[in-house]
Write a structure and sequence with these properties.
Helix 1 packs antiparallel against helix 2, helix 6 packs antiparallel against helix 8 and helix 8 packs antiparallel against helix 9. The chain has about 190 residues and is mainly α. It has nine helices and no strands.
Length: about 190
């Protein structure tokens, strides 16, 4: 079973890398930077999680599970940036707002990697499996992440009704592409 998960995640990482490459080549187009960031986060998340499934010892599994968070914390912010870009709200992407958006993800990584000293992220419960009883900061990050995804989704949904048919379809594809993994991740938390 682990090999099946790992293969699916590696395929997702490859697809993310291909989309990243196309986004980079077209980086002057609207939405390309947000898409590049979103796909980079998905690439890191998928690749590190695949390696976690392939790891044989518990220490390797724990390390790679933690490493997934370099993608996990970036994905919601990147998706919001993408939504701002493709809904003509680039003016919201000021240096100040980007710094504010980066505070919770940065603190999450700090608390995650220093958790043995304070227990804010794992609440003293550390296993190679999914986190079912995370600490305070795990839930702060989860709420923050889903809030960003919700805001980005609403922006795309509203914009879909105000745009031409082609862009409407693209917005819905992006929306579905982000909401499916977010929903499945949310289900795994409850």
């Amino acid at each position: 079973m682990e090999l099946q998960y790992a293969i699916a995640l590696l395929v997702a990482a490859i697809i993310s890398a291909i989309v990243m490459w196309f986004s980079w080549k077209r980086r002057s187009a609207d939405g390309s930077i947000g898409l590049l960031l979103t796909m980079a986060a998905a690439f890191v998340w998928s690749l590190t999680y695949a390696i976690r499934w392939l790891s044989k010892d518990i220490n390797g599994q724990l390390f790679w599970l933690d490493a997934t968070y370099f993608g996990v914390v970036v994905a919601p912010t990147a998706f919001l940036i993408l939504a701002f870009e493709i809904t003509n709200r680039k003016h919201w992407l000021t240096r100040r707002n980007l710094i504010l958006l980066a505070i919770i993800p940065t603190l999450t990584l700090v608390f995650l990697w220093t958790d043995p000293w304070h227990g804010l992220f794992y609440n003293g419960m550390r296993t190679g499996e999914a986190i079912l009883n995370g600490g305070v900061w795990f839930w702060v990050n989860a709420v923050y992440s889903y809030l960003l995804i919700l805001i980005a989704s609403l922006l795309l949904f509203i914009a879909s009704y105000r745009t031409k048919s082609l862009y409407r379809q693209q917005n819905f594809i992006i929306l579905i592409g982000m909401l499916l993994p977010a929903f499945s991740n949310l289900v795994s938390l409850v």
